Amino acid sequence: MIEVDHGNNLITRYAHTSKVLVKKGDLIKRGQKIAEVGNSGRSTGPHLHFEVLVQGIPQDPQKFLTAGRVVQHQVFAQSGGSQSAPSTRK
Asked: Which residues of the chain have pLDDT under 70?
């Protein structure tokens, strides 16, 4: 799983990728390809698992996609066996 920390307690998650194209510490720009869609984990076919979390609470991603509330630059981080940003949960 890839987690991108957008700042302001906003995190997006991407899962079931076949190939990760970024690494810990990379600066990610809007529109940049960060992974390739795959069929990893417990899935029945290639697809993108996409989540939006604010302060660790899952949100409806549609309101963020429609509003264009994506930050121009993000920092990508990695921890453990998966790609993730540092948790902002307390």
From this structure: 67-90
